[in-house]
Amino acid sequence: MRPTNVSPVRAHGLICGAMQPGPRNLITDVAGITVGHKTVIDGDLRTGFTAIVPHQGNLFLDKLVASSAVINGFGKSAGLIQVEELGTLETPILLTNTFGVAEGIHALIRRELRQNPQIDRAKGTVNPVVMECNDGYLSDINAIALTEEDANAALVAASEDFEQGSVGAGTGISCFGFKGGIGSASRQIELEERTFTLGALVQANFGRAGDLVLPDGRRPSPEGMAAQEERGSVIIVLATDVPLESRQLKRIARRAGAGLARLGSFYGNGSGDIGFAFSTAHKIPHNSERDLIARDYMHEGNIDLLFQAAAETTQEAVLNAMIASPAMYGKGTSFRPSLKDWLDQN
Q: What CA–CA distance (Å, rounded) separates 91 from 64?
């Protein structure tokens, strides 16, 4: 695939913010990151896994600085407690449905054990990071159909170029009454005459029908859909090559909420909204012969650039997820229309 920053939303003449996208306008504009999907569509199933691989080395031995921000905590994620305490990421990130989290945990643990047979009770365990959205409207979530093999397939499929829309963990989800999905975007940042990147990948499964606000002010609403409670979820993964502390990454992850608010979201009571951020700038060794490790990190006075990038990429990634997702029929009589169809007709 030839790199292009013409995302689905930009192809419809909609621009989110003022910052410049990266070459692909994807999270993989941050060097070393790859993304893969495993999509399961079978009978009443509309589900899957999406894998984000933060670097191509041994992530357990060479960890990355990371943090998370719980915008609204109606969720069943794994691994966030240790990330919060230690400020590091040591496995790929898996996104899936609510009842697929356990299989994702198993896949990541066994992956790290294969790569690092020295892991045992004396030398430490491994902290898998798995996050979820409930795809139970379009998919038969109670079938608990996803397997460890499905999670592994998403990890194996990871590459710099990947699909957006109704794929992987985005297959069966909804957003503002339309079809939701997986979306991504990136922004470039200039610091000390160097170009850095912040990218976002979202699993967009939130928002009430009628609440969506486009960048041009229009408010699309699915035809004939009654008012409903806000009971969805959204996972926002932010990645950057700017050197940062975990405290700074938490502040940036929190600003993903600004991107959701631009879209018309208010983080409802039943919505699980989580921002997760990591930096690829430095690798933190699992074992070190030195007592002290020297690292650069960005001066706080420049952090507004990353706050703005977090808001813009989150907003654009959600819209990309929706526009890239065609209308879908699911289990029973369930149906979600496509935002792309609405845009083409209005």
A: 9
Q: Are 129 and 274 in contact (CB under 8 A)?
A: no
CA distance 140 to 131: 19
Q: What domains, with CATH codes, occur in the chain? A: 20-287+303-345 (3.60.70.12)
The reply to whether the predicted model has a pTM over 0.90 is yes
CB 181, CB 170: distance < 8 Å? yes
Tens of pLDDT along 324-338? Answer: 999 999 999 999 999
- Answer for the pair 278, 223: CB distance below 8 angstroms, yes or no: no
Residue 73, classed as helix, strand or coil, is strand
Q: Which amino acid is at 343?
A: L
Residue 279 has pLDDT above 80, yes or no: yes
Proportion of the chain in helix, strand, coil states, percent, rounded to 5: 25, 30, 45
pLDDT computed for residue 1 by the predictor: 43
For residue 95, what pLDDT is reported?
Answer: 98
Residue type at 55 in one-letter notation: H
Catalytic residues: 233, 271, 273
For the cut 50, the answer to whether the pLDDT of residue 162 exceeds it is: yes
**More confident site: 285 or 2:** 285
How far is 251 from 67, CA to CA, in rounded Å?
9
d(CA 198, CA 307): 10
